[in-house]
Amino acid sequence: MSYLVVQNLVKRYGGVTAVDGVSYRIEQGSFVSLLGPSGCGKTTTLRCIAGLETPDEGTISVADKVVFSSDANVNVPVHRRKMGVVFQNYALWPHMTVFENVAFPLRVRRYQRTEIARRVHEQLEMLGLQGLERRFPSQLSGGQQQRVALARALVHDSDLLLFDEPLSNLDAKLREQAIFELKKLHKKLGKTIVYVTHNQVEALAMSDVMAVMKEGAIRQMGPPREVYNEPEDQYVATFVGKANAARGRVTTSEDGRVSASVGDVAVEGVAQHDRMFRVGEEVRLFFRPEVTRVHASTEVTGTNAWVAKVDSVAFLGEQTEFELSLGGLAVRAVQLSMSTIREGDLVVISVNPNDVRIVAESQWGEA
Amino acid sequence: MGLPQRMTWATLMALGSLCILAVLVGVPLSAIIQSAFREGSPFEPGALTLDHVWSFITTERYRAAAANTLIISVVAVAVAAFFGFTIGWLVERTDVPFRAPIRTVTLVPYFFPTFIGALGWVFLGSPGSGLLNVLLRSMNPPFGPFDVNSIYMVGVILGLYLSPLAFILSGSVISNMDAAMEEAASASGAPTLLVIRKIVMPLMAPGIIAAAVLVFIMALQNFGVPVLLAQPAGNQVLVTQLYTEQAFGVPRYGPGGVIALLLVLALAGLQVLYYKETAMSQKFVTVTGKVSRPNTIRLGIARWPVFVTWLAYATLVVFLPFGVLFYMSLRPIQTFGGPLTLDNYARIFNDPVLLRALGNSFSYATIGSVLTILFALLLVWLNTRADVGFARILDGLATVPIAMPGIVLGTALLWFWVAQPLPVYGTAVIIILVYVTNFLPIAQRNLSAVMLQVSPELEEAALTSGASPARTFASVTFPLLRTGILSSWLLVWLSMFREMSAVIIVYSIGHELLSTTLLQLWQDGDSLTASAIAMVMAAGSLLVVIAVTTLSARLRIPAAGVASP
Prior knowledge:
The structure holds 2 protein chains of 2 kinds. Chain A is of the alpha+beta class. Chain A is about 25% helix and about 35% strand. Chain A has 9 helices and 21 strands. In chain A, the strands form 4 sheets. In chain A, strands 7-8-9-3-10-11 form a 6-stranded mixed β-sheet, sandwiched between helices. Chain A has a 5-stranded antiparallel β-sheet with strand order 2-1-4-5-6, covered by helices on one side. Chain A starts with a strand and ends with a helix. Chain B has 22 helices and no strands. The longest helix of chain B is centred in the N-terminal third of the chain and has 36 residues, at about 1-35. Chain B starts with a helix and ends in a 10-residue tail after the last helix.
C-alpha cells in the first residue's frame, strides 16, 4: 500500500484553477520531487497535503488514514496532521532562540522537559548546529537558518516531510552542498519526502521519483533518469535540461531502430517505448547536447555523423558550449573543455544512434 | 470539519463588527445629512428642504467663515511647505552643521497639540501686551505692532506648527530619491538644470503634492489655532463657527449641518486626492532597499548663515512660544518680569473641577485607546488573516471618519444622542464614542502596517508543528505583534489625551477634560492656569511616552524577520 495517496486533487482560486486533477501515489521512504515553473501548482499541491489550503475536490490519505476527502467531508486540521514542513523562507520565529524554535513541536505535544532537551540536542548535533542553541535566528547565516528549519521539521519524528523550495534562498555553493547533505539524510532516516522545487538540478540529484508539472497538472512522473532520457514531450524535455529536437520523416522502422530524414540529413535513432512507426510518418528526433560530439576534423565516418559549421563557442570553464548549424538546422553541443575549435570552423558532429530518441510528432507538442 | 467551522466563527465576528461600524459611522453621517436637508431636528424628521443651504450661501458670517478658512489654509500650506521642504532638504542633502539636533528640534512641535503653540503666541504676539510687540515698540524707531489675530498671521502661525509634518513627509520623499537616477541622467549627458527639471522634479512631484494635500487637510480642520488666535478678534473659520453655534449643549441644526457637510465633502475629496498622489509616488519608489546616497551638497560659506536662519525659525516656533508658556505658568500675573510662583499648578490640584479633568483625561484616554486598539486589531485580523468575503468593506467603513473633523463628529453625535432616551449624552459614553470613532482610522492604519511585517509563513510553521490555532496565536502571532500593538496604542492614547476639538462639544459637567478646561479657563481670562494645564498635559504625555518606550524596549525581539545570511 502506498504511503501518501493523492487522488484527483482540485484547487481553484476564484476563476483560476491552480491544481487541476492531480493524482499520485508515493511509497513509504521515497523522495519525491514536484518540479515545475512558478504557478504550475506544485506549492499549492504541497500546501493541500499539509492542510494549509483546503482543496475543492479530491482525496488525500497518509499512512492509510484519510486526512482530506471532499466526498466523505473529512478535513483533518493542520495541527493534527503529523508531519514536518520546511518553508521556503524557513519561517523561523524571530522571538525564539534556536533551541526554542526546535523544541516547539515537542512542547506543543507536551513532551517532558528532559526528553525535549535530549531530542533537541541530538537533532542539532546531527545537523552540525551544536553550540548555537542560544542564538536567535537573526544571528545565524542563511545556511544555518536552513538547517534549523530542517531540525524543527525533523525533531518530532514524523514519517512525512514536506519541503517547499527550501534551498532557493541559498547561494549556489551552499545549495550544492545542501543537496548532498539532504540526500545523505534521507538515506539515513528513511522518511517519506515530498519536495517542491523549480530547480531541475535539485530534483534530478535527490529524488527517487520526480513529477514535472505544468498548469496544475502532472506532465510526466518517473525516476529522474527516465524523465531525463525519455521525456514524453517538448515541455518536459526542455524543462529538464537542454534539448536538440528536429522534425523528420521515417524512412525505415524495425525492432525499435528507426531511420529518419531531416531535410537532406539522414539520422538513426531509437523509438521511444519501442513504438512502431510507419514509413513516411512525421516524427521528432530528440537528443541532448552532451551526447553530441564535436570533432576537430572534416572527415565523416560511420552513421549519424555530419559536417556542421560552428556558429558560436562559449567557454564555461570545465566545459565548452557550441552552437552549430547543420544544413538549416541549429544544434547545440556541450563538451568537456578542450581543443582549438573556433567560430566559423567546419567540424564533424556525431551522435550515437542509441542516444537519439524518436517520438511521434503528435505526442511531442509545444513547449 | 475544522476549517469551515473557524470560518463561520470569523464570519460571525465580521458581522458583529459591521454592526458596530454601522453605528459608529452611520449615526454621525446621517445626523449631518438629515440636519442639512430637513426642517427641524434631524431625528424628528420634518420635510426635506434646501433652506439651510440657501441660508448658508446668503448669510454674511458663513461666507466670511468659508473665505477665512480658505485663506488660513492656503497661507498655512505655503508656510508649512516652504519651511518643511527647505529644512528637509537641508538635513537630507546638505552639509549644514548640527543636522541631528536640527532634525530633533524641528520635530518637537509635532508631539504637542497645535493649541499649545498657539497659546504661546498669544503671549508673544497679542497687539497690546505681547512680548514681541512690547520689544518692537521699544525699538528706535518704534516698529509694529503686528497683529497675531489677523487672518494672515493666524495662517502663518498655523503653517509654522504644521511645518514639522511637512518636514517629515518631504524628508522621506527627498531621501527616497535614488541618486542613481540623477547619476544616470548626468551620465547620459544632461546638464544639472535639465536633470533637476526632467528627472528630479517629476519624480518628487507626487510625493510633495501628497504632502501638501495632507498639510491642507490638517489646516482645514484645525481648531486649536483659530479658536485661540482668530476668534478673539471676531474672525471665524468654519470649525470655530460650528463650535460657537453648537457649544454648551444647545443643538442648532440647519446651517450647522450644511457647514458639517461642506467640511466632510471637502475632506473626502482631499483624501482621495492624497491617496492618488501617494499611490503615484509609491510607484516611483525603487523596489529594492538599495537606495544609493546622493552626494552631499556643500553649502560653503553659506553653512553658518543657513544654520543661523534655521535657529531663528526654531526660536519663533519652539524656544520662544514654549518658553514663554512655561514662564507664564509660573507667574502670578500676566506680565513680564517679577517673582515666580507655583500657585497656578497648585490650583489644578486644589480645584475639584480641574483635578477631576486631570483624572478624566487620563482614564478616558486609556479606556478609549484600549477599546479602539482592540476593535482595530479585530478588523485588521479579519482583513488580513480570516477568509471573510466582506472584510474589505469593514476596512473601508473604518476609514470613513478621516473625512470628519473632530468638531463635526462631536456635533453630529450631540445632535443624535441628545434626542435619544438612552443616557449617552451627559455621560462618559459619548466622549468614549467620539474618541473611538475619531481615532479608529489611525489605529487601523498602524496595526495593518504592523500585521504586514509578520509573514503568514511564521504562523503556518507553528500550525504544521502541531500547535492549535489558539496556541499559534499565543506563542507566535501575539509575541511578534506586541511591540507594534504597544506603539500603536501609545499613538492613539496620546492623540486622545491631547484632543480638543472632538470633545469640546460633547463634554459635560462631571466629565471635563484637561483640553476643555484649558479652553474654558482661557476664555474666562485665566491664561495663567491655562498655561499650567498646557504644561501638565505636556508632562503627562512625556511621562506616558517614557513609560511605554521603556516597557517596549524590554519586550523587543532581537531582530524581527529573517535576517540575510
